[in-house]
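User: Fold this; tokens only.

Assistant: Input:
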Amino acid sequence: MRTMSGKSQPIVYVDTSGVREGRLEELKVAMNDLAEFVEASEPRLLAYQVYFSEDGARMTVLHINPDSASLEFHMKVAGPKFAPIGEFINMLAIDVYGHPDAALVEQLRQKAVLLGSGVVRVHELHAGFARLLAG
């Protein structure tokens, strides 16, 4: 999405998964490896963070992309690493905040089905601002 000034808007991606019983420690190792790979391979990504609930039953992955192209690149580069993580989780939902294109939304749906339930929700910006990107 572009603002009136012509600048791209960030895309915030949040996925939530249930952690399969007895698989938390293996999942933590896999996610550490994935986070290191993403950091090394995707210099445009502004943030990539993995959170676990206090009881270890739920994982949330958040990333902030400067634009839709950055999230598309993430799906291309990191996508092959998603399937092995499926044995540790049941993905419950992917929430995308911003304006991804239709092809990207379909890729996210395929990821959600691969790893769990297949629920993808897109939330369009109504009002506000971001100070994440230098002008």
